[in-house]
Amino acid sequence: MSQEPQTAAVPNTDESDEESVREIQVLEFKLGDETYCVDIEYVSEIVDKGSLTAVPNAPDYVDGVMDLRGRTTSIVNPKALLNVDAADGESKRIVIFDSNKFEDDAAIGWLVDEVYQVVRVSMDEIEEPPLEKDDSIEGVIKRDGELVIWISPVNAVAEN
């Protein structure tokens, strides 16, 4: 009588197990009194706020355009996109996003108050967003007693 070879038990490696050990890198920045972040894969570079050229009839969330290495880049105010209280802080930096990540290959930058750091975040540190109707919020990260709101720049711009 032949016996089937016995194999050691292999732990179940479904997606939830893989996500719990998977890490992403996010760029943290300040808008008003809150800390937000975006996946670093979206970020092309960070530049100082220069002079912006106003665009007639542009949506309220577009502060203007700037010439960045020969390419006209739309500068978006994420405070207007995300309904953040704009009373606090002056926007000093621009986070330029990789145009290849946007459907129409748009050159877009977000005007932020301050850029903090790039950090690694474990997927098990991320909680579901409190509002399911808002596709721009990927999740909430609890770290060091603070909440960091993880934003999808593509969904935030697409919703408006």
UniProtKB/TrEMBL annotation:
Which Gene Ontology BP annotations are present? chemotaxis; signal transduction
Q: Which residues form a coiled coil?
A: none
One of the record's GO cellular component terms: cytosol
Q: Where is the composition biased (Polar residues)?
A: 1-10
Domain CheW-like, by residue range, is 23-160
Q: Cross-referenced SMART domains, in alphabetical order?
A: CheW
Which residue stretches belong to region Disordered?
1-21
Q: Name one Pfam family in it.
A: CheW
PROSITE patterns (alphabetical): CHEW
Please give the name of this protein: CheW protein
**Which organism does this record belong to?**
Halogeometricum borinquense (strain ATCC 700274 / DSM 11551 / JCM 10706 / KCTC 4070 / PR3)
Organism phylogeny: Archaea, Methanobacteriati, Methanobacteriota, Stenosarchaea group, Halobacteria
